[in-house]
């Protein structure tokens, strides 16, 4: 039996595809590792309650990592060290991420986390981003944009369903899967879900200068 895996979970399309890839390879995904601040998920700012419902629909429990809204590197490192210690005590020796091609992000994870005794997995690494987003559509994942960098995309892209029309409207130079941070998503349904995660669109706000956020209400 392969060693169990924990998956770092953002609630978005890359996390969903990473989960599918791990399961297709025969891995046992034991838990989803979710970092939150003030009841919301990091850059995506999705409410923790919706992610809890996601995990229930996927049949995987959540291990929460609670952080302040603007954690220092030292605070983040301490929280992740404690999390990995807990995983290792439970026999979970591998931690997977949905990173695709940002080498600086991967290098940071490897530098900080590998010395803690966990093996890192990157099941989507090096995949073509057009292929990835086509897979999202072809397999029937339902994703909505919850964050848009308006320095790359118009604010009107925030809160939209990612579908063929969305992709056709993307301006030249924008990665089709948003892998350079142009947009982030929340996945509410797909082939691994026991049923859809219901939500409705709430208010939008702009934070950190250029980032437009769509609130999702349970």
From TrEMBL:
Organism name: Haloechinothrix aidingensis
Record's protein name: ATP-binding protein
Keyword Cell division: no
ATP-binding recorded as keyword: yes
Domain of life, per lineage: Bacteria
Taxonomic lineage of the native organism: Bacteria, Bacillati, Actinomycetota, Actinomycetes, Pseudonocardiales
Family matches, as InterPro entries: Diphthami_syn_dom, Rossmann-like_a/b/a_fold
Diphthamide synthase domain span: 6-194
Alphabetized GO MF terms: ATP binding
Pfam family, one: Diphthami_syn_2
Protein keywords: ATP-binding, Nucleotide-binding
């Amino acid at each position: 039996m392969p060693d169990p895996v924990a998956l770092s979970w953002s609630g978005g399309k890359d996390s969903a595809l990473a989960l599918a890839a791990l399961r297709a390879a025969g891995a046992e995904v034991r838990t989803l590792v979710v970092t939150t601040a003030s009841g919301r998920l990091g850059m995506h700012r999705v409410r923790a309650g919706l992610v809890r419902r996601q995990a229930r629909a996927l049949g995987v429990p959540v291990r929460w990592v609670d952080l302040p809204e603007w954690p220092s590197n030292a605070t983040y490192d301490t929280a992740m060290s404690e999390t990995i210690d807990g995983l290792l005590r439970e026999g979970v020796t591998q931690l997977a991420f949905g990173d695709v091609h940002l080498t600086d992000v991967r290098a940071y994870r490897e530098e900080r986390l590998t010395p803690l005794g966990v093996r890192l997995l990157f099941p989507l690494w090096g995949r073509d981003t057009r292929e990835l987003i086509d897979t999202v559509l072809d397999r029937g994942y339902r994703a909505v944009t919850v964050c848009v960098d308006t320095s790359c995309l118009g604010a009107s892209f925030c809160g939209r369903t990612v579908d063929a029309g969305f992709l056709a409207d993307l301006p030249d130079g924008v990665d089709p899967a948003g892998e350079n941070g142009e947009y982030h998503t929340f996945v509410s349904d797909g082939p691994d879900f026991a049923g859809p995660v219901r939500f409705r669109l709430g208010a939008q706000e702009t934070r950190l200068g250029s980032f437009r956020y769509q609130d999702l209400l349970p």
